[in-house]
Amino acid sequence: MSPPxxxxxxxxxxxxxxxxxxxxxxxxxxxxxxLLWANSPLVHYYHALWHLPLGFGLERYLxxxxxxxxxxxxxxxxxxxxxxxxxxxxxxxxxxADLKVALLPIAAAAGGVVVPALLYVAVNTDPVTRHGWxxxxxxxxxxxxxxxxxxxxxxxxxxxxxxxxxAIIDDIAAILVIALVYSGGIxxxxxxxxxxxVALVFALQWFGQRSMLAYVLPGAIVWYGMLRTGMHPTLxxxxxxxxxxxxxxxxxxxRSGHPVSDEPAPVTRVEGALHPWVAFGIMPLFALAxxxxxxxxxxxxxxxxxTVAAGIVLGLLVGKPVGIGLxxxxxxxxxxxxxxxxxxxxxIGLLGVLGAIGFTVSIFxxxxxxxxxxxxxxxxxAVLIASGLAAALGLILGRLRTxxx
Length: 405
Description:
Elements: H1 3-6, H2 8-38, H3 43-50, H4 67-93, H5 99-123, H6 127-130, H7 141-151, H8 157-180, H9 191-206, H10 216-229, H11 235-242, H12 252-256, H13 266-290, H14 303-333, H15 345-355, H16 360-369, H17 373-404
Helix pairs in contact: 2-7, 2-13, 4-8, 4-11, 4-13, 5-8, 5-14, 7-8, 7-17, 8-15, 9-10, 10-11, 14-15, 14-17, 15-17, 16-17
């Protein structure tokens, strides 16, 4: 690999963090607009917009085709494609490439998934409400990094990298949960379609095709195959992201042995091209489509709605910081890993609070977990409240650390 590419492991996370920090503000504004709109006299137009039929002539192939479907099941596939690209890059030459370096965020992320889930299940004993156990296990990269960016310059750079890596591992856990828990009954008719799409992707790579547009049709075939199987179609994005080449030379160029130009590897180039669109377009649009909770239906929460909301708030605000902090402490004490030189345990505490900002992925999982409108509204409201409180607490703690320093 040429020298210009050697700098990528350092440069990409910094650029990634700067985009995510700005995206967090856009995400917050979109959620605020959705909440205000859904609780205004214009609420009818809010619901009418997202239930607007949008079939594209594919009505006979798709079970539902309103605007919200295309946002949640269509555009969010691109979001998960970027997640897959991040995972692929980090496993190749990033923080997940070295197991010793990755053990701390892996342990922290594991604790941040297990403890919130256990607290949620402890509150929700009914099988219907218990189905939302994975909602408080997610971390929103954009929102969390945005809060960290507002803290100031007194935060160690290793904390930003640790937060980024932890959130990526959280995304891996969310992907596995969506695939194993929140996909419907498996229909084998979709697997040949998935195989066809993946085969076309690898064929294009074998011929050395570098144009991103050439992979749109195979990607759409994989998406449709996932939909036909009963698995969530957004997982197609993860498959495509993980199969993207990590070296500049692939296909014909790699076989010929000829040196390649200074063009970056496809995994870097595609992520760089799509990430701003996801950060400033798709994620805010998802928040606008899903954060519009009518508060009039929340004020009298009882029964299942109350336990769902309580489990999510408890899981995020208590389970996340405790799980992340405790797992990190145990891993370091067992000498499986060590804290970065510029970090102290108080920084791990701040990491745990920032990890409690669920938002995008938590709302996404809530949509998959509950069909009941009351339970879904309670879950979304709890995610918004818990994420907002965690963001405020993280900002206060970060400011105090900076001022004390």
